[in-house]
Amino acid sequence: MNRIVIAIDGYSGCGKSSTAKAVAKALGYTYIDSGAMYRAATLHFLNNLTVLTNPKEVAKAIETMHITFQVNPDNNKQEAYLNGLNVEKEIRKMRVSEYVSEVSKIKEVRQELVAQQKKLGKKKGVVMDGRDIGTVVFPEAELKVFMTADIKIRAERRQKEILEKGELIGLEKIIHNLGERDRIDSSREESPLRKAEDAIEIDTSYLDFESQVNQIVSLAKEIL
Ligand code: C5P
What we know:
Blueprint: E1 5-10, H1 16-27, E2 30-33, H2 34-47, H3 55-63, E3 67-72, E4 77-82, E5 85-86, H4 94-104, H5 107-120, E6 126-130, H6 133-137, E7 143-148, H7 151-164, H8 171-187, E8 200-203, H9 209-223
Parallel strand pairs: 1-6, 1-7, 2-6, 7-8
Antiparallel strand pairs: 3-4, 4-5
Helix pairs in contact: 1-9, 2-4, 2-5, 4-8, 7-8
Bound molecules: cytidine-5'-monophosphate.
Cytidine-5'-monophosphate binds next to helix 2, helix 4 and helix 8.
EC number: 2.7.4.25
Pfam family, one: Cytidylate_kin
Catalytic activity: CMP + ATP = CDP + ADP; dCMP + ATP = dCDP + ADP
């Protein structure tokens, strides 16, 4: 069967990752969470106290950063590893969320991660979610989706997700973080967040999870 690339972009906290994961599962495709790569890079920069405005320090940090996705033997799930260490939990914490858009603005960081993402999608049969997947990483993707949702609804969903991982964060703080990330992601010079011209927009504010997954799977099947 014809294997395609599915690019899912959109604002922070729209449910891109969980939707992309379920779409990949339904089609027997590989799911790649590009945001996890930017989050792992941010954790690496934080761990090394890298000064983001110092080009030498940034270059050194990129050189010593090795990000991979591996199956965690404890739960059989594909998770993010930084220099051989499982960082899946650490990269979802607020400390990383607060810095990730600043690190993601850096041209050299994007060049490095975009190159890795392109390699990961070379064999097709992938669903990748992020901010610039349909515009920069895979401009030739056969199916592009752009997800949006009301910011309050996004924040409530995110709060629940974070709580399930053991961190209690106030709604106002989450709304602020999502808004700031959207603002920085949309206004940066290097591959800003924007809808690709040929992307199909899906507003998930009042869609249940199953419907949003089915909608994308149906679109994919029309192309296959
Ligand atoms: O997808 P997630 O919310 O985990 O992404 C975290 C951050 O990583 C985003 O707010 C954005 O700053 C950055 N990112 C990016 N380009 C991508 C994926 C994520 O700049 N393709």
